[in-house]
Amino acid sequence: MKKKAEWPRRLRSQEWYGGTSRDVIYHRGWMKNQGYPHDLFDGRPVIGILNTWSDMTPCNGHLRELAEKVKAGIWEAGGFPMEVPVFSASENTFRPTAMMYRNLAALAIEETIRGQPMDGCVLMVGCDKTTPSLIMAAASVDLPSIVVTGGPMLNGYFRGERVGSGTHLWKFSEMVKAGEMTQEEFLEAEASMSRSSGTCNTMGTASTMASMAEALGMALSGNAAIPGVDSRRKVMAQLTGRRIVQMVKDDLKPSDIMTKQAFENAIRTNAAIGGSTNAVIHLLAMAGRVGIDLTLDDWDRCGRDVPTIVNLMPSGKYLMEEFFYAGGLPVVLKRLGEAGLLHKDAITVSGETMWDEVKDVVNWNEDVILPAEKALTQSGGIVVVRGNLAPKGAVLKPSAASPHLLTHRGRAVVFEDIDDYKAKINDDNLDIDETCVMVMKNCGPKGYPGMAEVGNMGLPPKVLKKGITDMVRISDARMSGTAYGTVVLHTSPEAAVGGPLAVVKDGDMIELDVPNRRLHLDISEEELARRLAAWTPNHDLPASGYAWLHQQHVQGADTGADLDFLKGCRGSAVGKDSH
User: Fold this and answer.
1) What angle (nearest 5°) sits at the alpha carbon of residue 59, between those of residues 186 and 383?
2) What is the pLDDT of residues 145-164, one digit of tens each?
3) What span, in angstroms and rounded, lies between the C-alpha atoms of 363 and 375?
4) Which residues pair with 474 in a beta bridge?
């Protein structure tokens, strides 16, 4: 365990606020226009509360209220809280996709921390991209930091049935196309989908990333599952405020917590909870920021033999509210530890080991958090498949897939991009049936641009009307963590840079063999080489702005889709005074 730093000592914020020089008086004097007494600048920890609240990020709409509880905890522990609004990348509203702006948010927030007098940070997150972007930023600067999430929404109900955020949106939409639900009923169901503050109530990407933060040790134990409107969420926020002050005194930093062992714990946790495929791309990026060598091979190695024991949508039947009542993520971590699948001595933001945090917890509902022998799937980890169609890998979530399609060979039906898909999919003359493999190109990090959540292509109505609800789908896109199906995602290299996906043609035969981790385009090596040699880019290139910067510097999905100049190095957290 890391040795605690000496206390008291001179903190970083004193470079701005400590002393009597002209420059210090400039910084400190301006702050006093808000009514802060002089003794608040006496060297106590200054804590930046980095808040992703926004009216246009509905998942985070209650974070201003929660921030007041964080402040209360900081004051109680003898710190000096300062709330700072930061870039909030909302999956619900941002176009072309919030993923386009994850890296921009991380860059902006990194400089927000580095350039201002913070000794530690509380990362207030919720909507799925806000969690990785703030952790990436904090890892880059490496000041003591702790995550507090906004928590999931309460269960939705429609005509007596649980309604899961996103999951039922996809389900009901397909039912409308199949003629099993009217448009009026769909609109009626809309009102039941989001009935309280908070993030998705399924094990979508937001709840997955909240779980990843806790499994990494970057949040207090039990943080991930508390509903957003539960009073215990406010208690968690206040306790987090108290804890960050002591973390500053101890100098407990992200680099002390986010070790290779911590990432392996997170990967196994993702398998156990049936977490989102988006966790792959975010954890790879976060590991890159802290300088940890994490690859797709680690995902397959660590997750392959972990059973999915959390019975939540989209893989199972319950929602986050029931998960919390059952005991939440600490129960899952305890199960992993008992099975020898947890690095028990990994340190957490509490200063204790992961095992000390979870060893005494109780599972209050074994239909929500299942015994291993009743797991949804015995091999629940994210599957990484490779082959001539995905030389650098592609991913699939087996707990959300149809078992009979995990070994499949079918004829390719190709869509050149999302617009081509939308133009063709509802046409009854489209030459497609349930045995085909749907292929969509040019939706990766450079191609979309930004890698949108469009990989879970809806099936054609002519197939849905036959009662078919799943087909093999392949793309270089992502899909929502709330989605389901036998969907191969993040195919790398992506089509927009000339990966093999770019040259798939209608009628080509494609083989998916999940047990053997294989994705194969059934053409000769010579034919593949000929097609690739003849390929030319066919997507538009941005001319200016952040879109241009993103296009020039974004890396592939197989390494986390971070910007190439931001990965793998931590800079100084102390800025130079300009006055």
Assistant:
1) 80
2) 999 999 999 999 999 999 99
3) 15
4) 439, 488
Look at 538 and 571; give whichever has higher pLDDT.
538
Higher-scoring residue by pLDDT: 487, 3: 487
3-state secondary structure of 440: strand
Residue 143: which of 578, 577, 574, 579 has the closest Cα? 574
Nearest Cα to Cα of residue 217 among 172, 266, 171: 266
Phi/psi for 415 (5° steps) reads: -120, 125
d(CA 181, CA 163): 15
Long-range contacts of 190-195 (CB under 8 A, 24+ apart): 192/156, 192/157, 192/158, 192/163, 193/156, 193/158, 193/163, 193/165, 193/168, 193/169, 194/58, 194/153, 194/156, 194/165, 195/153, 195/154, 195/156
Distance, CA of 171 to CA of 469 (rounded, Å): 9
Alpha carbon of residue 78 to chain centroid: 33
- Give the single-character DSSP code of 436: S
Please name the residue that has the structure tokens 């971590």.
333
Over the stretch 290-318, which tens digit does the pLDDT of each residue have?
999 999 999 999 998 899 999 999 999 99
Helices and strands counted in the chain (H then E): 20, 14
- In eight-state DSSP terms, residue 527 is H
In three-state form (DSSP H/G/I as H, E/B as E, the rest C), the secondary structure along 128-139 is: CCHHHHHHHHHH
Instruction: Note the pTM of the prediction, 2 decimals.
Output: 0.96
39 three-state secondary structure: helix
